[in-house]
Write a structure and sequence with these properties.
mainly alpha; 23 helices; binds zinc ion; two-stranded parallel sheet; two-stranded antiparallel sheet; Reverse transcriptase zinc-binding domain-containing protein; 8 strands; RVT-Znf; 5% strand
């Protein structure tokens, strides 16, 4: 007996295949109310049908409420990304670890997130400059590492399939086995009488259709111990001979060949009487299935293009909003005038560079070749004390700038930060000129570069705090890098 008592005032009685009159009588005897399915329990409708959109309504509403509490227009991209990730890691996980979300629901959740990320409120939609799929790619693959919901959902549900193999003593397994029956070591699918929940789990286990195909089935392998628990024909146990190979007739040559192949397959397998058969998760033979591992398996595509410069936007001392800004810049997804022309938002007559240099405002022009903004680079280089030319493309520029002072990783990391400061300063100056009608001189912009880099670096570099003045004239000396 546990010490907990049922509070009948707070409880309700729900009947399954029971006459209403009887249910009401029992409820009044127990002094609790009669409930109906579906009812909400821990934020999920119990007894509802997860294939229906209405089932997911509470989840959507909660995400919406949580995000609309924040005025996204007052937050930077960095702030929005952090919030969005935190909402995603906490809110829908509970629902997604039980139920397969219909693709309509995944798109609805995504569109709430997209609007939030790009700064639109519920009724005004702003331009999504980069596809959601790219935003969801991992940082190693050039994205921002937001979760792909569909794959995450599958990875969470895959856990049930894994438990089905390794936790056969569990009550829930015994319930399922009793309800649907077991065939060759697998709980049966149950056909039409199967619950919607169970049928989705079986689809993942058997790789019936949908995303990832047979990822689960291909992920497991049977490690044979004494062999008593494994099914010769259906379990995936030969991966990696027997002696009593007796045949009723002589084998033909092609049969001998097949026999040879078969023996090779069985070469590494010996029965061990004292060990029982176990299941192994291929990608992690030691600790077995994990949601994180399965998610990686489902989202990693080896053919994804990868740009070296995209790695450089992530720097520990650079604010997240600046990294996201650089991420958009390198993909040419900033609202530069020429990009706005392409999207039909302004006319092509209105795409002159705000510096009045007569050039067209493309990212390349603004950040490198503009006679006004672009000259910041040479001032910065003479401040730091090195010289180089400006490559034409932004990615080359970033790479060359970062690697221009040789191999020392502290120097590289410093120049990487300075490059990010510079593009940030240029963009802000451009916006000041465009929207506030105020402009600053080149020396003032250089001061900003010095100031921002000082702020960002001083939290982790104690040397810097006492050497503010030498920072102004010779940053490498100040950082002890000469
Ligand atoms: Zn210009």
């Amino acid at each position: 007996m546990s010490g907990l008592k049922v509070n009948f005032n707070k409880s309700m009685l729900v009947g399954v295949n029971i006459a209403d009159s009887w249910l009401r009588a029992v409820a009044s005897a127990l002094r609790c109310t009669v409930g109906k399915t579906p009812f909400l329990y821990l934020g999920l409708p119990i007894g509802g049908d997860p294939r229906r959109l209405g089932f997911w309504e509470p989840v959507l509403t909660r995400i919406q409420n949580r995000l609309s509490g924040w005025k996204s227009c007052f937050l930077s991209f960095g702030g929005r990304l952090v919030l969005l990730k935190s909402v995603l890691t906490s809110m829908p996980v509970y629902a997604l670890s039980f139920f397969k979300a219909p693709s309509g629901i995944i798109s609805s959740i995504n569109s709430i997130l997209i609007k939030f990320f790009w700064g639109g409120s519920e009724d005004t939609r702003k331009i999504s400059w980069i596809s959601w799929k790219d935003i969801c790619s991992s940082k190693e693959h050039g994205g921002l590492g937001v979760r792909h919901l569909r794959e995450f959902n599958l990875a969470l549900l895959g856990k049930w399939c894994w438990r089905m193999l390794v936790d056969r003593g569990g009550l829930w397994f015994r319930v399922l086995a009793a309800r649907y029956g077991v065939e060759r070591g697998c709980v049966r699918e149950g056909g039409r009488i199967g619950s919607a929940w169970w049928r989705e789990i079986v689809r993942i286990r058997d790789g019936v259709d949908g995303l990832g195909g047979r990822w689960f089935g291909e992920g497991v392998v049977r490690k044979v111990g004494d062999g008593t628990e494994s099914y010769f024909w259906t379990d995936p146990w030969v991966d990696t001979g027997g002696e009593a190979w007796e045949w009723r007739r002589h084998l033909w040559a092609w049969e001998e060949e097949m026999l040879g192949e078969c023996q090779v397959l069985l070469l590494d397998i010996t029965l061990q009487a004292q060990l029982s058969d176990t299941w192994i998760w291929r990608t992690d033979p030691v600790s077995g299935y994990s949601v994180r591992g399965a998610y990686q398996l489902l989202t990693t595509h080896p053919s994804d293009p990868h740009e070296a410069a995209l790695d450089l936007i992530w720097h520990k001392q650079v604010p997240l909003k600046v990294s996201i800004f650089a991420w958009r810049l390198l993909r040419d997804r900033l609202p530069t005038k020429s990009n706005l022309v392409i999207r039909g938002i302004i006319t092509s007559e209105a795409q002159d560079c705000v510096a009045g240099c007569g050039g067209m405002e493309t990212a390349q022009h603004l950040f490198i070749s503009c006679s006004t903004f672009g000259s910041l680079w040479s001032s910065v280089r003479s401040w730091i004390g090195f010289s180089s030319v400006d490559p034409h493309s932004l990615t080359d520029h970033f790479l060359q700038f970062t690697f221009s002072s040789g191999g020392l990783s502290v120097r590289r990391s410093f120049l990487q930060l300075i490059w990010l400061v510079c593009v940030w300063v240029i963009w802000n100056e451009r916006n000041q000129r465009l929207f506030r009608n105020s402009e600053q001189t080149l020396p003032r912009l250089l001061d900003k570069v010095k100031l921002y880099s000082y702020w960002w670096l001083k939290t982790t570099n104690m040397n810097l705090v006492s050497n503010y003045h030498s920072w102004w004239t010779s940053p490498f000396t100040c950082l002890g890098m000469v």
